[in-house]
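User: Fold this; tokens only.

Assistant: Input:
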Amino acid sequence: MPHDDQELRLAIQRVARRIRSMQADEEVTEGQRSVLFVLSKSGPQTLGSLSEHEHVTPPSMNRTINALVKAGLVTRATADDDARKVKLDLSAAGRDFIRETRRRRDAWFTKRLAALTPEQRRLLDEVAPILREIADQ
């Protein structure tokens, strides 16, 4: 990999890591945060669907869910269509966590962008669709 490609990859990773670090509760792990965002985006899920989405085993996901339920961020409820299934969803505190995390991330990013020159902003505007295309492949 040419040096410039590696520099770009490392820069993108550092920005992504900084954005991810902006969250409402420092006690929530990266894996737990990921589950909360999946529930926020996709709505109630089963343990199996969350395990598949996150590429982890059901026992591992069960430990994550247990921690989130204990923290009051996720609720468990019997599925309407099948009493053997358990649906997992965000609690009110979980929705607050998502909302505050997004607010912090937006504030951090907006502040960084505001410090750029107009030329730097123009360059980022040109690069954004290219990065989106790479991410979507």
